[in-house]
Give the backbone structure.
Amino acid sequence: MLSCGQGTPSAIAEVGRLAPGHRITELQAAGYGAVQAISGVLYAKGSQPLDTKALAVNPALASLAALLYRTNDMSMVSCNYRLADNPTAKQIAAAATQTMLANGVLTEAELQAESTIFFVTDDPTNPN
């Protein structure tokens, strides 16, 4: 069994970046459980497995990629679900969390729930 931070991280979701001039409602109308995140990035979810090939060619998306459960930057890896073992990761998560709260992506109750876990990962839709 691999310990925390070893091996290749697996995908936990699909994320996409909206194409200019498109809205998330286009994806929702097409039956995708898309949830607006930050800066045009969305999280695609659903109870059924996503048809990623069809979603990837949807004109409302500029890009689509798998979201990994952890970053590939080993200096940001945390083995604690609240990031308590990595102050830098915890600081990044705190800033991101405040942005998500301010934009209605998360509620304070969701943030404070015992079941809420934090991951620092890479944005696979950002070419930079």
